Amino acid sequence: MQKQSEAVFCTLRRCKKPLRSVFALLSGFIKMHEMGIAMQVAEIATASIPEDMQDARVERVNIKVGKLAAVVPESLRFCFEVVIKDTRLDGAELRIEEIPVVARCRECDTEWTVTGPVFRCEKCDSGSIEVLSGQELDIESIEITED
Ligand SMILES: [Zn+2]
Question: What is the distance in A from the centroid of ligand 1 to the CA of 136?
């Protein structure tokens, strides 16, 4: 039995290409994860251009990405470039600030930077920990120049 392909189209205003073909182009060397994030970042950045600056050029989009978001900065930058092509954001640079994972132990209050896959307090070995940072996926700011 043949599977029917989903009719999903690129949501970018001028694009409207079936997403499938866009992803097919990239499959093999880019993960969907970064592509989805790149699309979201582009969408939010576009929406945050002030009404009275619609002719301005977006120079840079600054984002904060926690290490727990498991984003490969290079892939994300590449995806972003693909996503913004021929849109209002075309040519904008994506600047990624990586935020380390900081955890706090609920038992002994120790705070430390998590660098490995082990989520246990390094002091008392408790598994009851709270993640203080590292889950961010925030758009800090967009930099705009008016010609
Ligand atoms: Zn502890």
Answer: 24
